[in-house]
Amino acid sequence: MSEETSGVKVLLGDQRKGVITLSIPIAIALFVQYLNNIVDSFWVSDLGQDPMAALGIVYPLYCILIGIGNGLGIGVSAAIARSIGMKRPQDANGVAAQSLILTLIISIAMTAILMLSAGPVISLMGGDNMMDASMSYATPIYLGAFFIILSGVMSGMLRGEGAARRSMAIQVIGAIVNIILDPVMIFWMDMGVAGAAWATVIAFVVSSAAGFYWYLRSKDMYVRFERKNFRLNTQYMREILNVGLPESVELTVMNFFNIFLNIFVIVCDGNAGLAVYTMVWRIGYMVVIPAQAMGGALVAICSAEYGMREFDMIRDAYRFAIKRAFLIILALCIVFALIAYPLADIFLRTDDMIFMRQKMVDFTYTMAFFMPMFSMVYIGSSLMQSLEKAGQAMLNTLARNIIVTIAYAIVALWIHGDLIGIGIALVIVESAGGIAMLVHGKLVLERTARRLTACA
Questions:
Q1: Tens of pLDDT, residues 17-32
Q2: Residues 52/41, Cβ–Cβ less than 8 Å
Q3: Which of 88, 204, 336, 377 is the most buried (most CB within 10 A)?
Q4: Band of pLDDT at residue 2, cut at 50, 70 and 90
Q5: Distance between CA atoms of 306 and 301, rounded to whole angstroms?
């Protein structure tokens, strides 16, 4: 094991340089992943309104699996980075091995739960009239839960030791496989919407295999898989779950609430409205990539600094990430708004969708308006994760999603509004939510610094 890998030097060096160095490959990986989601929507949109709406129905459940993988990945990343900051390489190895055991246990449980509840849940979400399409997309995704979760864990493991470029590489490889397989399996193999799902699962298998290749064959990794560490170790599991469990719950809560949000969108504007809502959100998530990337970088950088008890460095990294992310996303939102009409023309090509063109444009404008402030939730949440206070971020997210759900319900059931009414609710609630998460993160940092400084 090399304790002087380039990744470790980034973690323990200048914090601003570290945030930029790690965030660039994370941003590239996220961009390719979201582009992959948009390509899914692009090809499936040719199948018509119901298959496209089926994606919207199943997407929150798919995102729950992604959220569990990313949440565990963040827990692994933070635990490994802290071990590096405290100069404990054997602890880093133990954390890595236990993360794989956790992945296996959780994925088996999730596959069983999702498969047994698939029909009733789709019906609850308003998918009765598109049950066949929804089940065709959902079944492969649920069966592939292990690889979907494992990919997020492997990516977090690599980020935790500062190997962000390799973390990027495994995500990009998987996304490219998915993009290539989509038209082949949807049209050439005549699998329809099920082909999109199987292409996604195969991509996660390839992504996970690439991560294992580096850890099993490369000689310049900090973390090593050792047979002795593959026995259950509750201490290492607690280290992972201390951050990973609240973060998984946070991401799961966000996607669980999306189930109800989708129902209210259907009440407001029907299946076509849900299809447009899903498409704009998928594109909109690309706009907030800089904040997500800097948040991912903060988890690794600030976790290492937390291990060294360097709170001034943590404060500086936090302020730096906020300013940079906000300015970049503001510029991207202007571009997002300017290309609203071309985006609508690209995704609304079938006869049963074209009438929603203006609503998609207007909803794109509202998204561009609140995204700069909304994106700050990723920065504040990441800071709390690095300080082992992921539970605080989870509670903040829970409160925000409850308020968003209430706002959607008011628009759908009381005002009897449409998709634009939903957009206005998002502007108000998500902008306030971004500010609240930033302030919350700052308060948690100062409380933690005072407590640990007093104990020193």
A1: 888 888 888 888 788 8
A2: yes
A3: 377
A4: very low
A5: 9
DSSP helix/strand/coil, 50: helix
State the Cα–Cα distance between residues 62 and 197, nearest whole angstrom.
10
For residue 226, the number of C-alpha atoms closer than 13 Å in the C-beta half-sphere is 13
CA 442 vs CA 16, 248, 358, 411: distances in Å: 18, 22, 40, 33
Please name the helix (run of DSSP H) or strand (run of DSSP E) that holds residue 400, with its range, or none.
helix 390-409
In the chain the first and final C-alpha atoms are separated, in Å, by 31
Put simply, whether the predicted model's pTM sits higher than 0.85 gets the answer no
How far is the CA of 380 from the CAs of 116, 215, 376, 448, in angstroms?
36, 31, 6, 15
Query: What distance in Å separates the CA atoms of residue 260 and residue 326, rounded to the nearest whole number?
Result: 29
DSSP 221-276: -S----GGGGS--HHHHHHHHHHHHHHHHHHHHHHHHHHHHHHHHHHHHHHHHHHH
**Locate tokens 């995500």: which residue?**
171
Query: Residue 189 has what DSSP assignment?
Result: S
CB burial class (10 A; 0-12, 13-18, 19+) of residue 365? Answer: middle
Average pLDDT over residues 307-335: 93
- How far is 242 from 385, CA to CA, in rounded Å? 9
Amino acid 453 reads: T
Whether residue 311 contacts residue 445, with contact meaning beta carbons closer than 8 Å, is answered with yes
How do the residues of the chain divide into helix, strand and coil, expressed in percent and rounded to 5?
A: 90, 0, 10
Tell me the CB-side half-sphere exposure of residue 110, using CA atoms within 13 A: 28
Q: At 244, list the tokens.
A: 């990973």
Give CA–CA dist 250/395, Å, rounded. 8
Give the model's pLDDT for residue 334.
95
Under DSSP, the state recorded for 418 is -
Task: Give the long-range contacts of residues 309-313, CB within 8 A, separation 24 or more.
Answer: 309/452, 309/456, 311/445, 311/448, 311/449, 311/452, 311/453, 313/15
Question: Between 410 and 271, whose confidence is greater?
Answer: 410
Contact 29, 292 (CB under 8 A): no
Q: Where are the alpha helices (DSSP H) in 13-144?
A: 15-45, 49-85, 89-124, 131-143
* 390-409 vs 376-386: helix crossing angle, rounded to 10: 150
Closest residue by Cα to residue 5 from 174, 161, 132: 161
Please give, one letter per residue, the 3-state secondary structure of 329-353. HHHHHHHHHHCHHHHHHHHCCCCCC
